[in-house]
User: Fold this.
Amino acid sequence: MKMIGIRHEDKYAPERRSPLVPADVRELTARYNLQVRVETSSKRIFTHEEFEAAGAMVTDDLAGCDIILGVKEMPVGYFRKGVVYVYFSHVIKGQAQNMSMLRDLVDAGATLIDYERILDEKGRRLIFFGRHAGIAGMINTLWTLGRRFKALGMSTPFEKVRQAASYGSLEEARSDIRAAGEELHARGLPDGAGPLVFAVTGDGNVAQGALEIMELLPVVKVPAARLSDADVRKQFDDSGRVYLANLVPADYMVHREGRAFDLDDYIAHPDNYESRFEHFLEPLDVLVNGIYWDERYPRLVTRQWLRERNEANGLRLRVIGDITCDPEGSVECTVKATGIEDPVFVYDPATGGHAMGFEGPGVAVMAVDILPSELPRESSEHFSRHLSPWIPTLASADFRVSFGQLQLPPELKSAVIVHNGRLTPDYAYLERHLGLR
Assistant:
């Protein structure tokens, strides 16, 4: 049986998550007799004592471990021949910033398994932080809204909400949001601030987490079609409530030849579709973006639209919570990913520039790219609960054999990007990004 290592996270200073938590380590060591080593860390949300009490060995390095589990990307020079590394590698789109890491892993003769590619037969992720990204992202969006209103000279109940990272627990954040909702329902908003119209994009784990937080407010759910009606804001007349639409591609993607929307066709052939998303943007105060995006797909929010609406004095949009956080991607005014320490900037449509903080003309954008780290305990517990059942299978597999002979269930085998220094068939396309062809 192999030795499992849990790595100290060093990509971001505020990163406090762990891929396995002590409760699940206890189960793995007691039930399966697995050896687990935990690299020392002064910032991990779970203490060394908690892991030792669960049966793990705390150590200064993970030398001798056969499988090393992490969360974020691992540095160039870290990889060793024959070792299996399991983490979010962010390489499957050929991300330029991570190609040197991937090349180093290949050159080392190591194996890479990416959590992002552990999928069921319908292509749904089985191990994920997405729900907590959505939860933290929505908390931060409400906090940003309160701070943005304050910068504009308006006091609102959203000033009760703090940044997710400042809370000791998720329940503390929920309590503040409930209190803000009760005050909102009782007193409404000042003139010029409401009524508030929100839209959340997506229907996956991220969007579900965001919508879960919105349920703590006095919400009136409205269909997508209602947002595109003429004089739509006249329909929303209660400043003590929040109007909320959940937008999915079927609402705003239109086939170029007039055919009915088909999700499978859209995923396979996005060039056949064009976005009508901007029809839904005009009445919004807050947009929360939780969709998957890559460069094949149409954008949702463009700089051009923001500039034109701003020039016509028709830009109502106050806050964008870009949980997806693809810089200059689906939300083009997300000009950069932000950190937990400095999470918000104001994008000025007139100049295309941005200023960190909540002041200035334009729209406030919250674009933290490690949102689950703001709720490290709850997000780690959720992730570990889904990851730990797969660990005995990984530990019993013989990775020394050829990839064709490697005995893993399909959910895991399809997530093997590199096997003993070679890209696996499903990921051979990455050769061109590595300069191998």
